[in-house]
Design goal:
By secondary structure, this protein is mainly alpha-helical.
Amino acid sequence: MKGENTVSNVIQFLETLGNNPAMTRLSAADYAAAVAALDVDDAQRQALLNRDNAALNDLLGGREKMLCVVWPADEPVRKDDDQPGEDQPAEETPPEQE
């Protein structure tokens, strides 16, 4: 399908921009020429030319928000975790009173 191909072309172009530091320093004319050479539809081309990430996201059917969450593992506490480590001083016990 042509629609899927143009999405792939846009993603590939954006990956190339991100992976090649020289591409980030293109002049406005060189950037426009690179976008013009892409096989994408007019709306996607215009969003790329305008550097409008919200419009491009909508055109490609992207998510509005994406989250990354890291959950701690559900592991039982090890017995030695209760012991002070080398970087923690051991609690001093007062000398016994006689």
